[in-house]
UniProtKB/TrEMBL annotation:
Cofactor: pyridoxal 5'-phosphate
Naturally occurring in which organism (per UniProt): Fulvivirga sedimenti
EC number from the UniProt entry: 4.2.1.20
Pathway(s) the chain acts in: Amino-acid biosynthesis; L-tryptophan biosynthesis; L-tryptophan from chorismate: step 5/5
Organism taxonomic ancestry: Bacteria, Pseudomonadati, Bacteroidota, Cytophagia, Cytophagales
Cellular component terms (Gene Ontology): cytoplasm
HAMAP family: Trp_synth_beta (MF_00133)
Subunit and interaction comment: Tetramer of two alpha and two beta chains.
Function: The beta subunit is responsible for the synthesis of L-tryptophan from indole and L-serine.
Gene3D superfamilies linked: 3.40.50.1100
Descriptive protein name: Tryptophan synthase beta chain
Amino acid sequence: MSELKYQVNEKGYYGEFGGAYIPEMLYPNIDELRSEYLKIIGDPAFRTEFDQLLKDYVGRPTPLYEAKRLSDKYGAQIFLKREDLCHTGAHKVNNTIGQILLAQRLGKQKIIAETGAGQHGVATATVCALMGMECIVYMGKVDMERQRPNVERMKILGAKVVPATSGSQTLKDATNEAMRHWINNPSDTHYIIGSVVGPHPYPDMVARFQSVISEEMRIQLSEKTGSPRPDYIIACVGGGSNAAGAFYHYLDEPDVKLVAVEASGMGVSSGKSAATTKLGRSGVLHGSKTLLMQTEDGQVVEPYSISAGLDYPGIGPMHAHLFASGRGIFLDVTDEDAMQAGIELSRLEGIIPAIETAHALAVFDRLPLTSSDVVVVNLSGRGDKDLDTYIKWGKY
Ligand SMILES: *Cc1c(COP(=O)(O)O)cnc(C)c1O
C-alpha cells in the first residue's frame, strides 16, 4: 500500500487540521480515550458485538440501490447508498452504537450528548435505552422549541433533555454545556459526539464507526459493476460524518472523486448560509483546528440552512484537509435547489429524502458526468422528520 495521506496521523492531525485544543480539566478524559480507543475498536470481541448490532438492530448492510430513472435523467449510472433505511432513519446510529459499546468497555455508567436538531440526541437516547444506561442530552432552548417532536422522542426513550440557556441557545451552547458536565463528572461519564468534529480522537473514532458505509459499498459495487471503485461519491456535509463514512475506504484512491456538498442557505453571500469552505477561515472550534465561519476578530458566525443537520459553522478536520489539499470537490447548494432535488427524488424514485441529503442530490448537473460514470450518492437519511419543512415550502 502507498502512504495514507488523508487519514489521521499519530498526533491526531489531518494535514494542518485536527489536534486536541481543550481545557486542562478535560485532559484526563481525552487522554483515556486516546490511549484506549484503537485497542478497544481493534478487539475482535468488540467487532463481533458491533457487527451483530449493526446487522440485527440497525438493519445493515443497507442496500446499494441503482436509481434507474434518476440515472436516465442525468446520463450516468447512479446508485443510492440507503442509510435512510437504518433504524432511527439516518446514519447517525452507526456511530452511537459504536460509542456506547466503547463507553461500556471504559467502565462508564452515564452518557451525555449535545444535539442541534435532535437527530443525534435521538440516536444517542436510542442506544442508551438499548443498553440500559443513563442518558442526558443537552439542547439549546431555542432548538427545543423548534424541534419539539425530537424532544418528545428522546423523553419517550427515557433520556433527560436539558435546555442550554446561554448565548444564542442553539447547538454551540449545548456543546459548551455538555463539555462543562463532562469536566465535572470525568470518571463515570462518556460524552458521545455526533459527527467527525471535536478534539482528537473523536473525528477519527467517529469516522471509523461510520466507515462501515464505504466498507459495504466496495462489496456491493463489485457485485453490481465489477469494480469496487465508483467514479464519484457524493455526500452532504454538516460536521461531515456521513461523508467521512462514505469516503473512508476511498480516501487514498485518487481516481475516485469525492464530492462534499455544503449548504449555502439563502446564498453564499446572503449572510444566511452554512457554506464553511466558501466563507470560513482556519480557527479552533469545539476542540479542533479546522475551517470555521468567523468574524474578523474570530467570533463564531451563527450559521443558517433550511436543514437543521447542515446548520453548523464548521466542518470536521478531515474535510478541512480534503478541501485544502484539493482531494475533495466542495460544492454548495441553496435551500431552494435542495428542496427541488428532494421533490425530484420523491417523484423519480419514490424516496422522500431528508433535507440534508437533498443537498447531495442537487449537484448532478454541476459535474461533467458521462454515461459510463458510476456515481454513488450517500442517502444519509429519510425525510419523515422534515415533513413540516416540505409542507411550508409547498412547491410540489
Ligand atoms: C445529522 C445529519 C446530517 C449531517 O451530519 P454529518 O455529520 O455531516 O453527516 C446529514 N444527513 C442527515 C440525515 C442527518 O441526520
